[in-house]
């Protein structure tokens, strides 16, 4: 009860008691006093209750203030969470877009990889076929190589036999130093000084030379799969005036002598002309010094060279 209202009740009662004191009995007075004390006690109780309620109210006010602050904090946190949620939603959208783009890139890479795999498989298949072809080629070449080795061995044996026959057949001329016979690196060379075959300044084979060429030719007639190159060489002495009308230089002289020897081997001995060739080297490939007569005599020569067919000079058509 409000304090003002309570005092408004007590004061009228006290005045009423004073006024009535003169005309009321003692018992009634005492009864009123008891009622007044009772009211006082009630008033004190009401004051105490008011104070208690006031404390409760103040406590509640403080709680309200606290709760209001908490509410404000919650509202602030809620706002921050909304902003954070909005940011997260935007990030999710961006991540989804990135993921879509990455999926496109990944798909493109997978497509390229699939094409590369298909191409590689095709290349592997092709390489395997090429490898099989190469293996067959290797086997074929190995067989050909073995056959070639066998052929070379037979040719070497044949060349050795021809070499031995020439050594035996030309023994007298070899001993006199007029002929030398060499065999080296698949080549067999018969080197004859021109004095055996030709008179000085001549290109016609003389009788002694015919006899020597006949013996050489009969041995060469049995040679197979070999080219026979007839090569003419001279010293460096210039051609004399009379001879120069027919052979202006040593080039022409050496070529004419080589050609006559080749023709003799073809026409008189019967050697296949497709195996024969004639070349003049003149004075430009000496085997000795031209400073003395002995050296010049060695440089004036005819060489008959047997070589494998694959290294023969290319024919002119």
CATH topology of the domain at 170-311: 60s Ribosomal Protein L30, Chain: A
Percentage of β-strand residues: 5-15%
Sheet with the most strands, sense and barrel status: 5 strands, mixed
- Low-pLDDT stretches: 311-317
Give me the side-by-side strand order of the main sheet: 1-2-5-3-4
Number of beta-strand segments: 5
Q: Report, as a whole number of angstroms, the end-to-end distance.
A: 150 Å
Question: Could you tell me the mean pLDDT?
Answer: 85
Account of the 3D structure:
With 317 residues, this protein is an alpha+beta fold. Among the domains are: 3-77; 170-311, 60s Ribosomal Protein L30, Chain: A (2-Layer Sandwich). Helices cover 68% and strands 11% of the residues. It contains 8 helices and 5 strands; from the N terminus they run αααββααβααβαβ. The chain has helices at 3-20, 26-169, 171-175, 194-197, 207-220, 241-244, 250-269, 293-299, and strands at 179-184, 187-193, 226-233, 276-280, 301-308. A 5-stranded mixed β-sheet has the order 1-2-5-3-4. It starts with a helix and ends in a 9-residue tail after the last strand. The model is unreliable at 311-317 (pLDDT under 50).
């Amino acid at each position: 009860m409000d304090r003002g209202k309570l005092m408004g009740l007590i004061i009228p009662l006290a005045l009423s008691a004073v006024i009535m004191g003169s005309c009321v009995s003692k018992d009634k007075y005492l009864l009123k006093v008891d009622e007044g004390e009772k009211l006082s006690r009630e008033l004190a109780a009401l004051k105490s209750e008011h104070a208690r309620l006031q404390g409760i109210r103040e406590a509640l006010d403080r709680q309200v203030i606290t709760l209001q602050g908490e509410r404000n904090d919650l509202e602030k946190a809620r706002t921050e969470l909304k902003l954070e949620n909005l940011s997260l939603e935007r990030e999710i959208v961006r991540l989804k877009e990135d993921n879509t783009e990455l999926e496109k890139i990944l798909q493109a890479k997978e497509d390229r990889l699939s094409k590369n795999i298909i191409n590689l498989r095709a290349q592997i298949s092709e390489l395997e076929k090429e490898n099989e072809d190469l293996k067959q080629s290797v086997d074929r070449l190995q067989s050909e190589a073995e056959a070639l080795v066998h052929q070379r061995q037979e040719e070497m044996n044949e060349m050795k036999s021809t070499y031995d026959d020439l050594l035996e057949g030309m023994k007298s001329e070899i001993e006199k130093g007029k002929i030398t016979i060499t065999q080296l690196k698949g080549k067999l060379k018969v080197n004859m000084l021109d004095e055996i075959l030709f008179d000085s300044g001549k290109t016609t084979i003389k009788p002694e030379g015919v006899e020597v060429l006949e013996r050489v030719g009969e041995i060469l007639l049995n040679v197979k799969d070999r080219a026979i190159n007839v090569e003419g060489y001279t010293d460096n002495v210039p051609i004399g005036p009379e001879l120069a009308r027919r052979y202006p230089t040593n080039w022409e002289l050496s070529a004419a002598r080589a050609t006559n020897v080749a023709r003799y081997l073809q026409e008189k001995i019967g050697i296949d002309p497709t195996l024969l060739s004639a070349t003049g080297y003149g004075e430009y490939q000496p085997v000795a010094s031209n400073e003395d007569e002995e050296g010049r005599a060695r440089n004036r020569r005819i060489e008959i060279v047997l070589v494998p067919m694959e290294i023969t000079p290319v024919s002119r058509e």
